[in-house]
Design goal:
137 residues, mainly alpha
Length: 137
């Protein structure tokens, strides 16, 4: 039997989400097999885009959180994506990640979030495929 996972806005749940994101990023640094699972299976990047995509503000993962908790996870997601999106550039593109980040950057007034968006864009600009994409347009 699989029991449904209930999301709450408790501090314990927020700590768990932060720990999981940090652990996945750390494993991507040190474990090639794990990196393959994250990039090829493609579930980590979409899970982080939930907190970045303005159109996903009604997603259950976000609606149960307070504004401050959403902001914290948004910053953490931007940081995680800055690390994992460049080597998984194709996955990021297929998930419409660039649109999500540019929309957030255009609509957000919080300097921390805007800085996170710019760091992600800068990390993506170093990807050779990104440069080839710009030259062909």
């Amino acid at each position: 039997l699989v029991k449904p996972f209930v999301q709450t806005n408790s501090q314990d749940d927020l700590d768990m989400k932060r720990s999981i994101i940090a652990l996945l990023c750390e494993l991507c640094i040190n474990e090639d097999a794990f990196r393959w699972l994250v990039f090829e299976k493609g579930s980590f990047i979409p899970s982080q885009l939930i907190y970045v995509d303005m159109e996903m503000s009604g997603h259950p993962a976000r609606t149960k959180l307070t504004h401050a908790q959403n902001k914290e996870l948004q910053l953490m997601a931007l940081s995680a994506l800055s690390f994992v999106a460049p080597p998984a550039f194709e996955v990021f593109l297929t998930q419409d990640g660039v649109r999500c980040v540019l929309t957030l950057l255009a609509q957000e007034s919080d300097e921390g979030v805007r800085g996170g968006c710019l760091r992600l864009i800068l990390a993506l600009s170093a990807v050779p495929e990104c440069c080839l994409e710009r030259r062909t347009k």
